[in-house]
Amino acid sequence: MTNNTISVTETVITPQAMLEHWQGHRRLTRRTIEAFPEDKLFGYSVGGMRSFSELITEITDIASNGILGIVTGKWKRVEELDHYGPTAAPATKAAILEHWDEITADIDTLWPQIPAERFQEVDKAFGRYEGIISDLLLYFIDNEIHHRGQGYVYLRTLGIEPPAFWNRD
Amino acid sequence: MTNNTISVTETVITPQAMLEHWQGHRRLTRRTIEAFPEDKLFGYSVGGMRSFSELITEITDIASNGILGIVTGKWKRVEELDHYGPTAAPATKAAILEHWDEITADIDTLWPQIPAERFQEVDKAFGRYEGIISDLLLYFIDNEIHHRGQGYVYLRTLGIEPPAFWNRD
Fold first, then answer.
1. Which position among A75, A125, A145, A151 has the lowest Cβ density within 10 Å, counted as fewest Cβ atoms?
2. Record-annotated residues binding a divalent metal cation (chains A, B) (predicted)?
3. Within chain A, which residues score under 70 in pLDDT?
4. In B, which residues are within 8 Å of A4 by CB distance?
5. Residue predicted with more confidence, A153 or B83
6. Cross-chain residue pair B13–A9, CB shorter than 8 Å
């Protein structure tokens, strides 16, 4: 074994498994968006928090610009992201879902272009968040889970059953 | 390169990074428990959901029995977990935090006993959830993030600022 190989037993997650993990969560988030009545996506929240559409804008911002940053090494600055400035976010549920699906396709297209050693490289996401790429990626996914869980509470207060958490199909 | 080695470039997350990822999230969840006033941990929820202490019982159940199952291959059945039956969960905030810290220590002690190839083995967590160990582990962590995010909403409705999501120290 040379220095640039390790035993397979040191691997917890492969790139392919990580892509599937992310897209599985994104399928669940898509179903959560679908579960919201159109008006409640935009004009409703709990505890003075952002509406679910605003949380989704943060998630789509991070996903679409995050995959680009990972592949190219070039990052939009935090201040340039939609959810920090005057938002150009989609204004209807259908448009949000369409945008969502574009990002899903982009991620599938761009992922194989990530040089495998890239996952262990240190980079500074959005000009601010420094870490190795695999940790940044987990952060993107964790942030989505976190905000989607909040959407579940919004749905519960509306008397709507959220999608099954365990289902990632 | 032989069949039982792969290039380091195929690794996204190492066992050590996965442990740190989990414990970082557990530190954040601990701070979220601490942020709740004692009475609101037990008697309060939003949208007819479970109280945060009940969500925490689910999380501690999964963590404490999950690490044992991963290490030993022996799993409590779902029906035997505290949060499914008459709960023996701690009844005060101090006792919850003490139990939390015991599990933190247990995970640190048991983790190095996981045979490295174990992460790719198929098992059936709690007698019900089948998958490779690394996916089961991610599921445990994702479930914690999901419910903790719901606790953030509870805190917001109480006018309490939740801990910073990005801080895993």
1. A75
2. 147
3. 1-11, 83-88
4. 7-9
5. A153
6. no
The pLDDT of residue A90 is 86
Q: Give the total number of structural domains in chain B.
A: 1
Q: In this structure, what token pair is assigned to residue A50?
A: 């952002």
Q: Is the ipTM of this complex over 0.95?
A: no
**Are A143 and A24 spatial neighbours (Cβ–Cβ below 8 Å)?**
no
pLDDT range class, residue B87, cuts 50, 70, 90: low
Chain B residues touching residue A11 (CB < 8 angstroms) = 6, 10-14, 119-120
Q: Which residues of B touch A45 (CB under 8 A)?
A: none
Contacts of A105 (CB under 8 A, 6+ apart): none
- For chain B, helix (H) and strand (E) counts, in that order, are 5, 3
Q: Which residues contact A88 (CB under 8 A, 6 or more apart)?
A: A82
Closest CA of chain A from B157, distance in Å: 4
Q: Which domain holds residue A44?
A: 13-157
Residue B66's CATH number: 1.20.120.450
